[in-house]
Amino acid sequence: MKNSKPVIIGVTGGSGSGKTTVSEEIFNRLAGESMVMLPQDAYYNDQSDMDMEARKAVNYDHPDAFDTALLIKQLKQLIGGETIERPTYNYAEYNRSPETITIAPADIIIVEGILLFNNPELRDLLDIKIYVDTDDDIRFIRRMQRDVNERGRTIESVVNQYLATAKPMYHQFIEPTKRYADIILPEGGANKVGINMIEAQLRVILNAD
Predict the structure, then answer these.
(1) Any bridge partners for residue 95, and if so which?
(2) How large is the average pLDDT for residues 54-77?
(3) Which of 81, 92, 101, 188 is the most exposed place for a label (fewest CB within 10 A)?
(4) The pLDDT of residue 165
(5) Does pLDDT of 134 surpass 50?
(6) Mean pLDDT computed over every residue of the chain
(7) Binding site annotation covers 15?
(8) Which residues are ATP-binding (predicted)?
(9) pTM for the full model?
(10) Residue 177 among known ligand-binding residues
């Protein structure tokens, strides 16, 4: 890449929209390029001072659930050419893990998460903003499958959390940020035409003088 500043791509959408699939598709298509990925989920707050019941009661679909200041700080460090120690999150413990992942600077930085466009300072760091737009029913089914199969949750707990927090938070905090998107991508990873266009644009940027 001839540009000195990395290209920052933000991929957002509701839980289960397919934003992680889209991010991974872009990442895989540009294999061989200098790229890193930052999941916003890694930046959930450290809740070591809370007992398990209090952790479970947290609204994880609200902006306050994230350590956005740390995400902004580390993203700025990567932009500035510094290596970071990215946090990790343990879903079984509802808490940040003690382990970190070393992330070196790269030409392309993909940031993906449900609330990337909500914070103006974070939003302004994103060069390309992609909103993955998927029907509510599809998102709920995907969330159910993920949380039961990968995170050990019960069906009842997933339904209760979706109705109590995930659905209302989506309509309050996530869907309204669609207006900030440069690209609205319906159907997520299944939208091959849209992803082809994103890939082509990134290759133009990477090969720019």
Answers:
(1) 90
(2) 95
(3) 92
(4) 85
(5) yes
(6) 91
(7) yes
(8) 13-20
(9) 0.89
(10) no
Largest CA distance in the chain: 55
Conformation bin of residue 138: beta by default, left when phi > 0, alpha when psi is -120 to 50: alpha
18 is in an annotated binding site: yes
Helix axes 192-206, 19-29, angle to 10 degrees: 50
Q: In sequence order, which residues have a C-beta less than 8 Å from that of residue 208 and are 6 or more positions away? A: 2, 3
Question: The dihedral of CA 40, 103, 190, 200: what is its sign?
Answer: positive
**pLDDT greater than 90 at residue 124:** yes
Pairing of the two strands 95-103 and 84-90: antiparallel
Per the annotation, does 17 bind a ligand? yes
Is 81 annotated as ligand-binding?
no
Q: Measuring CA to CA, how many Å separate 11 from each of 20, 24, 40, 148? A: 8, 11, 10, 24
- pLDDT at 126 (0 to 100): 97
Which domains, from first to last, does the chain contain? 7-206 (3.40.50.300)
List the structure tokens of 17: 């929209």
